[in-house]
Amino acid sequence: MGLRPGISERQRRLGEELRRVRDAAGRSAVEVGQAIGVKGPAISHIESGRMGLNIDRLNIWLNLCEVTDSGYRAALSTMCGSSGKGWWVDFKHDVISNALDLAEAEASATALDCYETLLIPGLLQTKAYSEVMHGYNERKVEFRHQRQALLTGEDAPPLRAVIHEAALHMMYGGPTVMRDQLNHLIEMSRLPNVTVQILPFDCTTYASNDTPFMLIRASHSRLHAVLLEHPHGGMFIGDPESVSKFDQKFDRIRGLALPPLSVSTPTPSD
């Protein structure tokens, strides 16, 4: 079994989880290697995501480490058996690897929570706004458009977005682009699975809100992840303690934000 030339976030996270359960069980790499029938540095490669393993070996690993949570085992099996192929692979030469990883994670997410400070969240951007953000790169704009289809497709996950008021005042693309973008936010908030809140300038309580982030909730709570955004890409965080802190931070920000946008549909006059 050869080493992978590239490692996706899903593959890296699976390896991280396998190392975590091995450490929790007090099992050595040698013990696990003997149990699943591999030698040398193979366990290190598997735990770093550089090498895969089949479902049978995964189950032996989990049994040896006494993992009894059936939901967690099922989620790990899904990660292990996934090919990682989806619509996003058509864009592998057009966007950074983090963007591909995000699209794959979103495709299997049970819920998404995001906080933005100076930008409209990518899943809620208009095409014109995205064009400005991506320097009118057609393929990057199309990639973002494909991501947005998640919110209106079958079994669309709930999205809760908190946007700092500063993002609403930025004139990216000019007044017309921003006016259409704000109208689009209102329209998206009509969807039953989309909740939009604004954190106002006059919030008098510090919310530790200097870092945009997205909470990606998986089918099992032990596999939730956080994507921290920065100008050069993003960083995924998966350790439970850190994820829990961002979960609490998001709840705090939501509590400080204005109530969700609520747009009533006008009723015809008599």
Strands ordered across the widest β-sheet: 3-2-1-4-5-6
From N to C, what is the helix and strand string? HHHHHHEHHEHHEEEEH
CATH topology type of the largest domain: Endonuclease, Chain A
- Please count the beta strands (DSSP E, at least 2 residues each): 6
- Helix segment tally: 11
The low-confidence parts are: 264-270
Blueprint (SSEs and pairs):
Blueprint (H helix, E strand, L loop, with lengths): L8 H17 L3 H8 L5 H6 L7 H10 L5 H12 L15 H12 L2 E6 L10 H7 L4 H11 L10 E6 H5 L5 H14 L5 E6 L13 E5 L7 E6 L2 E5 L2 H17 L14
Parallel strand pairs: 1-2, 2-3
Antiparallel strand pairs: 1-4, 4-5, 5-6
Helix pairs in contact: 4-5
Features:
Endonuclease, Chain A; 44% helix; 6-stranded mixed β-sheet; alpha/beta; 434 Repressor (Amino-terminal Domain); 270 residues; 2 domains
